[in-house]
Amino acid sequence: MGRRLEALTGTGARRTWAALIIVTLAVVLPAIAGAETIEIGGDVYSEKCTPCHADYTVSDHPKYTFTHGNHITYQCSACHPEFPHKPDGTITPVMKDCFNCHALYHGPQGVIASGTCEDCHGGKLVDLRPASHTWDWAQKPHVAAANTSLTTECSMCHAKPQCDECHVKEDVVWAPAEPMVFDAGNGCQACHGSPNLIKSSESGIVSYQVTGIEESAHRDVTCPECHIDFKYSDAPAPTEVWQVNAGLSCSGGVCHDHDEQGAAWGKSIHAVTLRNGDFNSATCGSCHGGHDIQLLDTESATTDLYLSGEEMCADCHADYFANYSDGYHGDAYKMGATDAPACWTCHPAHEMLASTDPQSTTSSANTDDTCAECHQHDDASETFVDNTAATIHHQAEVRAENPIYEFFGNLFGGS
After folding, report:
1. Residue 101 belongs to domain spanning
2. How many helices and strands (H and E) does the chain possess?
């Protein structure tokens, strides 16, 4: 035995072991050095999965029929917002995450993906029973949940006829406090929160990433509250254009009590044009924005709003804004003077009427009174208006007719 140990630990044996170690390291280390590094943090991309899952479309799960192949056009992060493999186990999406897309009516494009349980789960629906649904669930346990999470949880799987079927048997009369339609909250951000959500268009690459919500006045508003045709029901929308529908959602009284402004807008040239089929006409959202709209709770925010005439009006009325350049009005306003008139000082924002309408503030019958809002009545005489009105929105014509005016305007920085 002693001789055998000596043979294993002697000088010759030590040399043999050293040689084997050197050869092993010579083979293994280069292989390790050349191996692909697998990143396990940050955004989730398919490239991070393929080193271990060459065929990641295959999924053998006893509770549902699923393949990544059916979802290959969607971003991985839509279902896996964080890298799923953790030291304490693998994070798999919960069913509520699936409903970020499934059963959702995506505006006029219709439902994105089936919301029928059997399509993914076959006949094994009993396996879907949540742990909270104890076998006495039909008694009192479900009442509290129905009062607190009717639209955020219950309606994901159940429709009111199912409730009625049981209630009739039990001689229970019940009506939900709100329509029994599922609300995924801001689940839309599973896709629209990513900077990689882009689309090619005639004008180039367009991003559909939604930003600014967390810092805006709408931080506590869920997507379907404004995007009224992006819901889990096929209720008819006002128009077939989602931007218009979102822009019209403000004055419905759900969030804002703007009945007066809504009624005024309803008579305006913008509303009339829209009703006549021109969906490029202005809605609430066209002027006020949406995702990044700010609270007017600071002087800075109020000032920013007042000076936002270009953003609000010039997209549609570029020529008028470009020619709003006389020294006392447009030039001063564009330079940030808060005592210079904004567009809506003369053209009321909500009750905007065509200038040919006798009731319009800019009709020939009313311009004296409109100017008198800022100028003293003595100054706002008919002669005063006649001599100055043409300089407000007609700078190009005025300067073309008067080279001296153009020279001094350019000399002193006028546009």
Report:
1. 95-127+151-237
2. 23, 4
